[in-house]
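User: Hi! Is it possible to get a structure for several chains at once, not just one? Here's what I have:
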Amino acid sequence: DARVTQTPRHKVTEMGQEVTMRCQPILGHNTVFWYRQTMMQGLELLAYFRNRAPLDDSGMPKDRFSAEMPDATLATLKIQPSEPRDSAVYFCASGLDGVSYEQYFGPGTRLTVT
Amino acid sequence: AQSVTQPDIHITVSEGASLELRCNYSYGATPYLFWYVQSPGQGLQLLLKYFSGDTLVQGIKGFEAEFKRSQSSFNLRKPSVHWSDAAEYFCAVGDDRGSTLGRLYFGRGTQLTVWP
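Assistant: Yes, the chains can be modeled jointly so their relative placement is included. Here is the combined structure:
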């Protein structure tokens, strides 16, 4: 049963520290999406990639967030420096363009910045 | 711009009762429509999708949804709700154009509570 995996599942860190979240998309998928979910804002798209190329990262605070795909099996989302307002659940999703548009979500990383 | 509205933030139903969750979308072309479900502490799981063809689509867990172009709606239904259906439900519309190909636009979600 192919699934999107995310690590870590939970992260507690102090303000100012760097946070790195990792995502392994489903093998063969060529699109990867990063979302942030909070009670106030709901589900927000931060960035997404097609064939490892970044397409849109307009949803990310550029000064502190960065997203990359070093290879087809790994996507990373970094926050440096982290702030308390970054506390949220971060989801990664993957999909396959040209076949269908559904996205498959990982279990999320719950980030708490104190 | 594409958008999705879920007018009901929270719905409460009794177990065994029927359910309808509303979803309205704004999209300039034929939409790709989805319903996802999120249980507490979990990621979003795809319930069903509409791309074309029959406007009544069946999904997992006994859910179905009907696409009505004239009303720009894609409401989710279930004839008899089970306590395990308590979760948050998200409607989404997909973008099949240009540089935003593959992007999904999500509604704010409807929280479903099921009374025993």
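The first strand of chain A starts at residue 5 and ends at 7. DSSP finds no helices and eleven strands in chain A.

User: Great, thank you!
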